Amino acid sequence: SKVYTTHISYLEIYNECGYDLLDPRHEASKLEDLPKVTIMEDPDQNIHLKHLSLQQATNEEEALNLLFLGDTNRMIAETPMNQASTRSHCIFTVHISSKEPGSATIRHSKLHLVDLAGSERVGKTGVGGQQLTEAKYINLSLHYLEQESISTCRFAQRVAVIKNEAVLNEEIDPGLMIMRLKKEIQELKNELAMVTGEQRLEELSKEELLELN
């Protein structure tokens, strides 16, 4: 049977800046003192989020605890219309990896759960100061998201007739591949020793051999 591992990340987007809601420094630090999550691109054009941690969850309870922990760190403020108004957008992501025992191939999957802050009518809520700034960023981001959603739907209609082939998100386990190469080298040394009569000096450990079988 396959071996599965699950990790959790929880991203907050507040005033157009990203923050890690699972950063343990949240409780003792101001938000502006925490490192901002930034988007990075590697040479293969894969996107990575710097300063966004991955926390392992071995069961449903641990995953829910991470969700609750992130929610306690989220920006919330009282407004005339809502006693606990969320002031940010959040993305809770479940990262799942699977691998067959003895296989060097790892398959990756992600599930994104998005919670958007609601739009606000500034004139109706009567907010000011920092809450007014937050409302402007919230409304602006929702406006761009609405435009992007409409454009995406129109684009989807145009390309609906195009056939697409899904590609599995897989990679090779480097540790297991190294052990397999070491085993091949060891077998070649055995053959060479039989021909030359020389004794091998290096061998794989019992643990490495068991993992390869």
Automatic annotation (TrEMBL):
GO cellular component, one term: cytoskeleton
Superkingdom field: Eukaryota
GO MF annotation, one: ATP binding
Subcellular location: Cytoplasm, Cytoskeleton
Gene Ontology BP annotations: microtubule-based movement
Entry keyword set: ATP-binding, Cytoplasm, Cytoskeleton, Nucleotide-binding
Gene3D superfamilies in the record: Kinesin motor domain
Pfam families noted in UniProt: Kinesin
Span of domain Kinesin motor: 1-213
Family according to the record: Belongs to the TRAFAC class myosin-kinesin ATPase superfamily. Kinesin family.
Name of this chain's protein: Kinesin motor domain-containing protein
